[in-house]
């Protein structure tokens, strides 16, 4: 009998042996290609829930050629971490990281939604100030370079 996939909403940090059926909604790479680079993505499940996933340099060399934005996958086994950084790309309490035992298989899962936009009334953000200061939203360029002196 096949194992029922986990839902992103149910990720609570209690286990890392997750089986997710997802679509990569956004995919970008940070760093210098072929030197020090990591991949980051937002994945979405059949309920439209999203979570941030990080693929560090040591794992990226195995998976970079296989990861494609808008493609669908079955993914197993991640490190589950708190999503409490200064900037967050998803509202989920946790984020996932690839490990040495992470498995990724491309699969035809056409029923999985594409990225959903979650619009709010402009007055809610500007007038009421009802926003989250640590949540990064919108499209941003992966070609952004920040220099430090």
From TrEMBL:
Gene3D superfamilies: Nucleic acid-binding proteins. Residues 9-106 form the Replication protein A 70 kDa DNA-binding subunit B/D first OB fold domain. CDD domains: RPA1_DBD_A_like (cd04480). Pfam families: DUF223 (PF02721). Signal peptide: none annotated. This is Replication protein A 70 kDa DNA-binding subunit B/D first OB fold domain-containing protein. It comes from Glycine max.
């Amino acid at each position: 009998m096949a194992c029922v996939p986990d839902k992103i909403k149910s990720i609570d940090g209690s286990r890392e042996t997750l089986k997710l059926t997802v679509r990569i909604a956004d995919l970008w790479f940070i760093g210098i290609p072929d030197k020090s680079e990591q991949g980051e993505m937002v994945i979405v499940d059949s309920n439209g829930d999203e979570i941030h996933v990080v693929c560090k340099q040591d794992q990226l060399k195995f998976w970079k050629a296989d990861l494609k934005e808008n493609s669908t996958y079955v993914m197993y086994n991640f490190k589950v971490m708190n999503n409490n950084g200064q900037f967050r790309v998803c509202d989920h309490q946790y984020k996932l990281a690839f490990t040495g035992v992470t498995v990724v298989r491309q699969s035809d899962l056409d029923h999985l939604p594409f990225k959903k936009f979650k619009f709010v009334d402009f007055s809610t953000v500007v007038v009421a100030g009802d926003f989250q200061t640590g949540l990064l939203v919108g499209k941003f360029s992966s070609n952004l370079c920040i220099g430090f002196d």
